[in-house]
Amino acid sequence: MNISIVTVGKLKEKYLKQGIQEYLKRLSAYAKVEIIEVADEKASEMLSAAEMELVKQKEGERILAKISPDTYVITLAIDGKMKSSEELADSLDRLATYGKSKIAFVIGGSLGLSQAVLQRGNESLSFSKMTFPHQLMRLILVEQIYRAFRIIRGEPYHK
Ligand SMILES: C[S@@+](CC[C@H](N)C(=O)[O-])C[C@H]1O[C@@H](n2cnc3c(N)ncnc32)[C@H](O)[C@@H]1O
Question: Which positions does UniProt annotate for S-adenosyl-L-methionine binding (predicted)?
Answer without folding.
Answer: 76, 108, 127-132
